[in-house]
Amino acid sequence: MSENPPPCPKCSCVYTYEMNALVVCPECAHEWVPGQNAEGAEGSGPEERVVKDAVGNVLRDGDSVTVVKALKVKGSPSGIKAGTKVRNIRLIDGVDGHDIDCKVDGFGAMQLKSSVVKKA
After folding, report:
1. What is the rounded distance in angstroms from the CA atom of residue 89 to the CA atom of residue 66?
2. What is the pLDDT of residue 37?
3. Residues of the chain with pLDDT under 50
4. pLDDT of 45-60, one tens digit each?
5. How many structural domains does the chain have?
6. Where would I find the beta strands (DSSP E) of the chain?
7. Residues 7 and 28 in one domain
8. Largest Cα–Cα separation, the chain
9. Residue 8 domain flag
10. Does residue 44 fall inside a structural domain?
11. Residue 11 belongs to domain spanning
């Protein structure tokens, strides 16, 4: 047994105790194996991030998508029209919700929000 078991990952209670191979929280009754994350072996961190399009389809790197609404583009008088197809997207952790990195024909490299595209 260790002297100071870790605090509870659910409620942050410091009065946890060890029972066999588990650590137990007396306040919320949460039990876990020390050294694993809060979800156990199921979640493995930020690589489990799921990006969905405007209609709820899961997007992956390399997918093709279609723009579902007209988008204004700085420096361009016309913008991107609804129905424009974008191939070979890359999912990123962008700024302001822009989570798709891609190349749009006629505009070049840019970032899009997943909420304005649908999987093709």
Report:
1. 11
2. 57
3. 38-46
4. 445 678 999 999 999 9
5. 2
6. 17-19, 22-24, 31-32, 51-52, 58-59, 65-67, 85-86, 90-91, 98-104, 108-113, 117-119
7. yes
8. 69
9. yes
10. no
11. 1-39
